[in-house]
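To: structure desk
From: M.T.
Subject: fold request, one chain
Message: Could you run this one when you get a chance? Sequence is below, nothing fancy, just the single chain.
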Amino acid sequence: MIHKEVDVLLGGMLLTRQAANLSQRMQAYESRLLLRRGEMTVNGKSLMGIVSLGIQGGQRITVMAEGPDEEAVVAEFSRLMAGDSPLTEG
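Reply: Done. Structure tokens follow.
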């Protein structure tokens, strides 16, 4: 299992539509993905889990993954939280 601290560089709060897109992208990976903010840990592939974290810019999230593509899923999550790729289209 790998752990990484990720700084969220989004411009504001992660909206439901963005969380849905994030969840969908994370489901493409085989590895188990967990996200932690404070004392709360959620399934990083679950829309409701992601929404319940209340992710917003300026926060730090701990990302934990375990499985065959754990490094790739953590890298993708980190890239998305850095704002390097849009979470919604249009």
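Reply (cont.): Residues 70-81 form the longest helix (12 residues). Let me know if you need anything else for the meeting.
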